[in-house]
Amino acid sequence: MNLKKRLTSPGPKRILALDGGGIRGAITLGYLERMEKMLQRRHKSSNLRLCDYFDLIGGTSTGAIIAGGLAIGMSATEIKDLYEKLGEKIFSRKAGIFKRLSYKFQIRSLERELKKIFGDMTMSSDRLKTGFCVITKRADTGSTWPIFNHPNGKYYKYTKDYLVRQVIRASTAAPTYFKPEVINIGNSKKGAFVDGGVSMHNNPALQLFLLATLKEYKFNWETGADNLMIVSVGTGHWENEESIDMVTDNKLWDWAGGVISMLMRDTSDTNELLLQYFSNSPTARIIDREIGNLKKDLISENPLLHYLRYNAILEKDSLAKLGFKKVNPKDLYEMSEAKNAFILTCIGEEAAKTDIKPKHFPAVFDKKKNSDLENFDIEGFLNRNKIV
């Protein structure tokens, strides 16, 4: 089935949304590997990949790298094995002392590694085996851009020629970490893009829900608990509580970083709150002590989707329960500590054993075996044989 037919055909649709978080994306991969193996067993196919199951895979920043790998048919295990080496290369080469006043790391290593994986494929490449979306921020206009590969998209005539590796690089260009990415956006114009994590969609699940359902995005997928599923995977969560004295003594530079972290946490919490409000999620978490997990709340008469959220808790007690008693949680928070890749992967793997349950994935979303006629690409046949 070609991509356009897959994205426009009727029936249940599945979305995979992957958070940003630098090297903490290794946690995501621990979850994805277990998810992929679970789905392989269910479908009795060791060759099944997440791109076969999910109709749209999207990510922000490090999530965009992982989403891209999955979208071209890489297994979660293949990406996991690559990730530790990738992190070392990306975060080991610091910018020169003068450039470091603008950004911490050189972009050449990141660009080189992305080219190894994605070559010169564009957003219209048939190597993208499923719907694919990257969240990035156009810094020169302040607008958030979900760049995706739906052939009916309003701006696909331009975005179809964007290089996949360049779009992903744009989404990973975290301010102060990497230089912005300049892209020829069409009509002889250029845009300067930075990490999608500085938008409201470091957790891209809500944006992907909007992409799938708002009419002008052209997906127009049907809502409902049996029609639309979003699986959202994070890069670690922790409660952030500082002493009053520490906060009141903050200097200007302390607030610069702290305010950004506060805003990112708020947007992620709001993202989860809304999707729990839209659904009867079996993985609903307590948003705060006042509203709880929204189990008694539903925005509409019937759920708008089936929503799953998986995210490891990076706190002392939670890590101890997973078998990591000697790990100091604070050592794991910095997103550029490449040396943490291995332990973060292990944490993701152990958390996934507890968190992911087959019953979370309703049978209505199982992939059905298509007949030969359903698999037949009529449009391609007509074009190849020049039949008008």
Number of strands: 8
Measured between the Cα atoms of the first and last residue, the distance is: 21 Å
Whole-number radius of gyration? 21 Å
Proportion of β residues? 5-15%
Shape: globular
What's the rounded overall pLDDT mean? Answer: 88
Q: What percent of residues adopt helix (DSSP H or I)?
A: 25-40%
* Topology pattern, helix = H, strand = E: HEHHEHHHEEHHEEHEHHEHHHH
The number of helices is: 15
Low-confidence stretches: 95-102, 371-378
Global structural class: alpha/beta
Largest sheet, strands/sense/barrel: 8 strands, mixed
Task: Give the topology, please.
Elements: H1 3-8, E1 13-18, H2 25-42, H3 50-53, E2 56-60, H4 62-71, H5 76-92, H6 108-118, E3 131-138, E4 143-148, H7 156-159, H8 164-171, E5 181-186, E6 189-195, H9 205-213, E7 228-233, H10 244-248, H11 252-277, E8 306-310, H12 316-321, H13 341-355, H14 372-375, H15 378-384
Parallel strand pairs: 1-2, 1-7, 2-3, 7-8
Antiparallel strand pairs: 3-4, 3-6, 5-6
Describe this entry's structure for a reader.
- With 388 residues, the chain is of the alpha/beta class.
- 39% of the residues lie in helices and 13% in strands.
- It has helices at residues 3-8, 25-42, 50-53, 62-71, 76-92, 108-118, 156-159, 164-171, 205-213, 244-248, 252-277, 316-321, 341-355, 372-375, 378-384, and strands spanning 13-18, 56-60, 131-138, 143-148, 181-186, 189-195, 228-233, 306-310.
- Strands 1, 2, 3, 4, 5, 6, 7 and 8 form an 8-stranded mixed beta sheet that branches.
- α2 crosses α13.
- Residues 95-102 and 371-378 have low confidence and may be disordered.
